[in-house]
Structure to design on (324 residues):
């Protein structure tokens, strides 16, 4: 049973050798400060989750653990499982040995200093504390427009997501144990955690530029992530197809009546352009509808196979060594 103040940081890493040493340095400084203030226990650890990196990320994690086993632990996934699965792997591994866990990315864009407020909010009785961006000063116009549009669209689609919140959050062990009951293969933690419930609050911070390395979320992955989030938590796109189909049926009936009327009054010459426009428009709607349905069918296909979401190859943790 973990002590009440045991904090485990879960930090997913994919090709992060350029930033990992600095991330470890800042987190160690933060841990020393929190332990001195007695906000967390000495059994607290930082767990780096290597998500099948192709560089020296895992070697660096092993070096950090060897040099400071009282602060750093590591999980090595057997293959690249994706950011959300890497986060989940870390959380499910530590859920029984911590009283609270914080997830954050390794690129230092999330404010390490916000951890203090998160832990304090936990001690005030909150089971979930969301790290929320107070502004998007570091984003380009396109990034800001698409990101804010995504959150607003998710709300319209009926998904309960926290505006401007990514994956920087604190969860109690109680919440983690409830999270373990959700078996979705198509993970979208930003929507899943609010679904669990419990008392929660927000901590606001300014997101910084990436310290080093390259972003692991190019436009293609961002769009795929958005589609996954929408289709995982809302059936409104399917309902929209039904509504559009009903509307097109009404328009078709009106068009038939108009065609008969034109025939009766002797003006039956129909233009090629209008015919082609109608064919392309209806054909496009049909393909779009099939695509949306296909997204949901694909998710059903992935879910029913029940394949493991991740496989842990190695877990290095000083606490386990002491217990053994």
């Amino acid at each position: 049973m973990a002590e009440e103040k045991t904090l485990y940081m879960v930090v997913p890493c994919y090709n992060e050798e350029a930033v990992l040493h600095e991330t470890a340095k800042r987190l160690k400084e933060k841990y020393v400060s929190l332990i001195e203030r007695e906000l967390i226990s000495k059994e607290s650890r930082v767990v780096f989750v290597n998500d099948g990196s192709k560089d020296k990320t895992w070697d660096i994690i092993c070096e950090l653990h060897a040099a400071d086993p009282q602060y750093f632990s590591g999980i090595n996934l057997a293959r690249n499982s994706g950011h959300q699965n890497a986060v989940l792997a870390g959380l499910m591994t530590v859920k029984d040995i911590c009283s609270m866990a914080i997830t954050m990315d390794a690129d230092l864009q999330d404010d390490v200093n916000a951890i203090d407020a998160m832990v304090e909010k936990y001690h005030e009785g909150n089971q979930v504390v969301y790290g929320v961006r107070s502004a998007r000063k570091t984003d380009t116009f396109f990034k800001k427009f698409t990101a804010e549009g995504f959150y607003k669209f998710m709300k319209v689609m009926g998904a309960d997501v926290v505006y401007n919140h990514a994956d920087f959050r604190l969860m109690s062990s109680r919440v983690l144990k409830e999270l373990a009951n959700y078996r979705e293969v198509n993970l979208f933690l930003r929507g899943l955690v609010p679904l669990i419930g419990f008392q929660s609050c927000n901590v606001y911070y300014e997101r910084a530029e990436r310290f080093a390395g390259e972003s692991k979320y190019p436009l293609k992955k961002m769009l795929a992530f958005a589609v996954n989030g929408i289709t995982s938590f809302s059936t409104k796109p399917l309902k929209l197809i039904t509504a559009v189909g009903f509307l097109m049926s009404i328009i078709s009936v009106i068009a038939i009546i108009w065609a008969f009327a034109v025939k009766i009054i002797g003006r039956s010459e129909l233009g090629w352009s209008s015919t082609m426009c109608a064919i392309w428009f209806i054909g496009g709607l049909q393909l779009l509808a099939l695509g949306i349905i296909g997204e949901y069918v694909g998710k059903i296909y992935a879910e029913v196979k029940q394949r493991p979401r991740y496989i842990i190859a190695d877990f290095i943790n000083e606490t386990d060594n002491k217990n053994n």
User: Anything to note?
Assistant: The chain has two domains: 7-220+308-323, 236-305. The chain has a mean pLDDT of 79. Residues 236-305 form one domain. The beta strands are 7-13, 45-50, 72-77, 100-103, 128-133, 165-172, 200-205, 312-316.
